[in-house]
UniProtKB/TrEMBL annotation:
Organism: Panthera leo (Lion)
Entry similarity comment: Belongs to the class-II aminoacyl-tRNA synthetase family.
Keyword set includes Protein biosynthesis: yes
Alphabetized GO MF terms: ATP binding; histidine-tRNA ligase activity; identical protein binding; RNA binding
Protein name (database record): histidine--tRNA ligase
Amino acid sequence: MPPFGFLHMRVWASLFGQLLRSPRAVCIREVHFHSQFAEAVLTSQLKPQQEKSNFIIKTPKGTRDISPQQMVVREKILDMVVGCFKRHGAKRLDTPAFELKDFDIAGQFDPMIPDAECLKIMCEILSGLQLGDFIIKISWKDVRHEMVAKKGLAPEVADRIGDYVQCHGGVSLIEQMFQDPRLSQNKQALDGLGDLKLLFEYLTLFGIAEKISFDLSLARGLDYYTGVIYEAVLLQTPAQAQESFNVGSVAAGGRYDKLVGMFDPKGHKVPCVGLSIGVERIFSIVEQRMKTFGQKIRTTETQVFVATPQKNFLHERLKLIAELWDAGIKAELLYKNNPKLLTQLHYCEDMGIPLVVIIGEQEMKEGIIKLRSVASREEVAIKRENLVAEIQKRLSES
């Protein structure tokens, strides 16, 4: 990935690109983390038995609270998106007001190489999120106006391009337009078609040409786009149609070569191309599907639970769990002196914790720890000094 050019130009391009795009993200006001049996409750006991308080807690407009289950889904989506951006050499830019997931390339480069990479990134993210089949439509903004007013094409040539608006396809459609004499005799039209042909050549090398559809009916409503535009759409299957899944555009972008110059005091022109991932739209789709199919979400990443069948073993449990934590193992226990074993095992099943270590009087005498698989309910005795290694082995195999 080539360098982005001057940093301040990159900042201007990205920042104003975010602000002018249609909002797809929500400011997260607060994330509430719930412990296993306790929940913080805000109560007001001011002026008891007097007039009612006028103090009302409200969620600010444009924000919402996110539950632990929702947060798990959100983090997986964001990790996938950010991981893909980093894989393509992105430098991170954060803004204080918005939760945005955009990727932009700024600088003077050879035609269509950055554009092709943006489309590749979009394909990688949508494939990785496993949202179902999708297609990315590409075109350019306001075809006839762009061709006549800005590119200098004769109106009749632009009208001929308009005949193709109802068509969509790949390289074959572009080749068909190349063969049209009313287009092939115009230099500007040939240049534009040449760029699109070059773009599809790069997309083929990236292995994503079958996911891209040249569609002149596509239009983006933002004025700052100056060239190629694209939009990713989820394709609805018959089963999804029956379940009333809400599908549609989940990512979009395009080229905006003049936006930086509009805000730079010296008027520097920096060509830019970028994409936006509709995180909130994707989150809503995933959440809706999980509700429909009744999928359960783990809200913790706990790997091992420390349990005991007997009373007065809190100290031993604390020493054991400290040993697991020090080894980098995610573990927890119940915050009670003498919890019932059945309660502890039920908690593991409810929370999806895969392993339980059990310590009691007999285990202490024999110098062992029982290691229990929650799923199979099978137990094996492990020497105390080998416990950490055995747990790490099982976790690596799962």
